[in-house]
Amino acid sequence: MFGIGNISKIPGSLASLITVLFLLLLFHYLKISASLFLIFLLVIFVASIFSINTFVEDKDNKDPREIVIDEFIGQSIPICLYEIGHPNTNSFSETVTIYFVMFILFRIFDITKPYPVSYYDKNFKNGFGVVMDDICAGLYVVAILVTYMILFA
Predict the structure, then answer these.
(1) Would you say 58 and 78 are in contact if contact means Cβ atoms under 8 Å apart?
(2) What does the alpha-carbon distance between residue 8 and residue 80 come to, in Å, rounded to a whole number?
(3) Are the CB atoms for 13 and 75 separated by under 8 Å?
(4) Digit-coded pLDDT (tens) for 112-135
(5) DSSP characters for 88-152?
(6) What is the pLDDT of residue 10?
(7) Which of 22, 73, 79, 95 has its C-alpha lying 20 to 30 A from 39's C-alpha?
């Protein structure tokens, strides 16, 4: 992600925050289709697995800090699914608030690694595991938001 992973402090959180800002720009200023972006995200997912495997091949640490494409993918999932389900239905300030909540929730799940996030993190020491733990964290965010909407909407 353009060298973000080389920043010495909190590269994962910074990558997640930049992803949120990028997607806000993409969906609300450039008006890119969230469905089209989801297809692009699938391509990035597959390419990142191969790229990460190549990058960590000769390293002891199979999930080094400088790899942050997994944060991009994991953070993008709840935002993209939210945009598909709520195209232009909220005010910009409401959207920013929801994006912020998704950012905080994603970081909590990515850092605390509840099951199955921890399962992929511990048991797959390759590109698949690096990316899947963040995908699971992103899906936890989706589950929390869907539960919230069911209970309070």
Answers:
(1) no
(2) 29
(3) no
(4) 999 988 999 899 988 999 999 999
(5) T-S-HHHHHHHHHHHHHHHHHHHHH--TTHHHHHHH--SHHHHHHHHHHHHHHHHHHHHHHHHHH
(6) 82
(7) 95
Contacts of 132 (CB under 8 A, 6+ apart): 120, 124
Tokens of 85: 């389900």
Task: Supply the angle between the helices 69-85 and 11-28 in degrees, to the nearest 10.
Answer: 30
Distances 89 to 25, 63, 84, 98 between C-alpha atoms, Å: 16, 38, 11, 12
The CA distance from 105 to 122, in Å, is 21
Mean pLDDT of 27-56: 94
Q: Helix or strand or coil: residue 67? A: coil
Tell whether the model's pLDDT for residue 7 goes beyond 80. Answer: no
The answer to whether the CB of 1 falls within 8 A of the CB of 15 is: yes
The residue type at 124 = F
DSSP annotation of 25: H
User: What tokens appear for 58 in the block?
Assistant: 């000769």
